[in-house]
């Protein structure tokens, strides 16, 4: 569906993207992660044809991306932009027409999503009269009203309350289940892990991790053990293979290097009379992200 092939972008002598490679099949959902300034927005602008790469190619359905492919892509920018003096329906009709839809199709699609997002009552209200959260819903409808094959979402959950976050997540899942390929960036890493089947992590314009959620999580060899007990278990820090210990009240968290260390700790814990919790936790995407951000200049693993 989409291939980002050897993309490099320089501004004068500053390298913003350094030989970036990504590949998405139809129906993939990619979480695109990185600190501010990592190159995420630049990547989106290059995919959308808003910015030319210094070198490299964007392929869409196996051929080089051209302007005619724009109508197959939806984009929700981080910086929202609606025509504040238009009504909701006027805005959707205008934006849908730019994607080549006729008015009847636009109204049909618009009503479906307005109902889905519980904003159908605002159809004839001006954008400026809506709350920030409801404006964000309209902005998302603008990006999907033409049923795009590829949808790019830049910080889609920013500024939304928990209820609206769940509504938006449900819409993203529905679109993905219908076959829409989705790329989205978010600082809410739990959403990436919950929704995506693939993840890419950028640091200083270089791809540091890329693959399925499981593959990327497996970059970290360690596991965490959480033990809850009123008994002093601090002596476990002396077991070989324990890398880090965090004590919070009666909960002890141990970062250990491998499963053999987990087994050693379990054998020790079994000797105690009463333990309320013993849990082995796999690394999260957040753990991987923080590890990468703390290792500047490490080599790319793909």
TrEMBL record:
Q: Where are the transmembrane segments?
A: none
Q: Which InterPro entries match?
A: AAA+_ATPase, ABC_transporter-like_ATP-bd, ABC_transporter-like_CS, ABC_transporter_ATP-binding, DrrA1/2-like_C, P-loop_NTPase
Instruction: Tell me which UniProt keywords the record has, alphabetically.
Output: ATP-binding, Nucleotide-binding, Transport
Family annotation (SMART domains): AAA (SM00382)
**Domain named ABC transporter: residues:** 2-229
State a single Gene Ontology molecular function: ATP binding
The family assignment reads: Belongs to the ABC transporter superfamily.
Q: What is this protein called?
A: Na+-efflux ABC transporter, ATP-binding protein
Q: Which organism is it from?
A: Brochothrix thermosphacta (Microbacterium thermosphactum)
